[in-house]
């Protein structure tokens, strides 16, 4: 029996050694299919067929319409990968997402990407195409922050790139990548902005006396808190200009209605941009790009 156990142990050890050796050999032979195309880019798996299909469809669209395609970006706070029906959530979690699921089914799902679990870095990465450490926007910005250097001074936003290629760009909803002059949406490339600059909690803290009684019931503390930000409300601005407050955010009802307000503004922006671009073939490439960011999370 002891001899058998000894032989079995030797066999198992040999098997594990063989598996480990085989695994390393297979990995060396090409389990990692990523390719680094530039020193400043992360390695990625080439998808030549998909890239060719996308290029062909864009070419066909531009030939048929004489214009570039519209671009609509929706960025949702606090939305987990598995919350959507397309990735196993949706109805299974009690919140169906049929429209997003349809987009995923009929479009292209990008399942290999980098993200951060907090707001400001994610937005900075999306707006610049660079990892947040490059711009220094590595944590959520607070109303009490007073940056000594504008992180946008050395960045090129997606909105600026689109503007340089004939697009009209608009942003509605939450910004949260800088409140100071020079860091606002209309300063970094957007033609129009309608939303608020800070994070939702910076506004809701002075709306709920049950949750924030020590703040709301102390007049001096409340005044100090509100003075931290110049823009305590929904604001608007146009490229190269200054922001103006459209209406202050003072009640929970107002905060509950901002999603619909931002959606209405986005639809109006798209319609106005489309109207200005007629006839499309006379001004190819001059189309609307509405980038909407939800301020309160999944809806």
Structure report:
The chain is globular, with a radius of gyration of 25 Å. β4 and β5 (244-248) form a beta hairpin. It has helices spanning 2-31, 48-65, 98-106, 119-128, 132-135, 158-164, 201-204, 213-216, 219-227, 252-276; strands at residues 71-76, 168-174, 192-196, 233-238, 244-248, 288-294. It starts with a helix and ends in a 5-residue tail after the last strand. It is built from ten helices and six strands, in the order ααβααααββαααββαβ. It is 40% helix and 12% strand. The model is unreliable at 4-8, 10-19 and 278-299 (pLDDT under 50). The protein has 299 residues and is an alpha/beta fold. It has a six-stranded mixed β-sheet, sandwiched between helices.
What is the compact description of this entry?
This protein is an alpha/beta fold and 299 residues long. 40% of the residues lie in helices and 12% in strands.
Shape type: globular
How do the strands line up in the largest sheet?
1-6-2-3-4-5
Counted by DSSP, the helix tally is: 10
Unreliable stretches, pLDDT < 50, 5 or more residues? 4-8, 10-19, 278-299
User: What is the number of beta strands?
Assistant: 6
Question: Which band does the percent of strand residues land in?
Answer: 5-15%
Structural class: alpha/beta
What is the residue-averaged pLDDT?
81
- Rg over C-alpha atoms, rounded to the nearest angstrom: 25 Å
**What's the story with the biggest beta sheet?**
6 strands, mixed
Distance between the termini: 66 Å
H/E series, N to C?
Answer: HHEHHHHEEHHHEEHE
Helix content: 40-55%
């Amino acid at each position: 029996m002891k001899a058998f156990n000894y032989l079995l142990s030797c066999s198992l050890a040999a098997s594990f050694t063989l598996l480990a050796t085989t695994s390393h050999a297979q990995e060396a032979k090409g389990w990692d299919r990523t390719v680094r195309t530039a020193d400043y880019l992360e390695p990625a798996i080439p998808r030549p067929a998909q890239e060719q299909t996308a290029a062909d469809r864009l070419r066909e669209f531009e030939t048929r319409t004489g214009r570039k395609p519209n671009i609509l970006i929706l960025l949702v706070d606090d939305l987990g990968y598995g919350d959507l029906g397309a990735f196993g959530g949706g109805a299974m979690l009690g919140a169906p997402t049929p429209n997003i699921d349809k987009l995923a089914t009929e479009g292209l799902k990008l399942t290999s990407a980098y993200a951060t679990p907090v707001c400001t870095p994610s937005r900075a990465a999306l707006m610049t195409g660079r990892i947040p450490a490059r711009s220094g926007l590595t944590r959520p910005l607070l109303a009490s922050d007073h940056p000594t250097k504008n992180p946008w001074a050395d960045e090129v936003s997606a909105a600026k790139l689109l503007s340089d290629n004939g697009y009209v760009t608009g942003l509605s909803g939450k910004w949260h990548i800088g409140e100071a002059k020079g860091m606002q949406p209309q300063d970094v490339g957007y033609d129009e902005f309608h939303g608020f600059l800070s994070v939702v909690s910076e506004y809701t803290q002075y709306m709920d006396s049950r949750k924030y009684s020590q703040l709301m019931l102390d007049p001096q503390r409340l005044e100090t808190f509100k003075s931290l930000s110049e823009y305590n409300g929904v604001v608007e601005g146009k490229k190269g200009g200054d922001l103006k407050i459209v209406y202050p955010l003072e009640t929970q009802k107002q905060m509950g209605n901002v999603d619909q307000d931002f959606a209405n503004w986005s639809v109006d922006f798209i319609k106005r941009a489309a109207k200005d671009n007629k006839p499309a073939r006379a001004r190819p490439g001059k189309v609307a790009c509405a980038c909407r960011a939800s301020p309160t999370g999944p809806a």
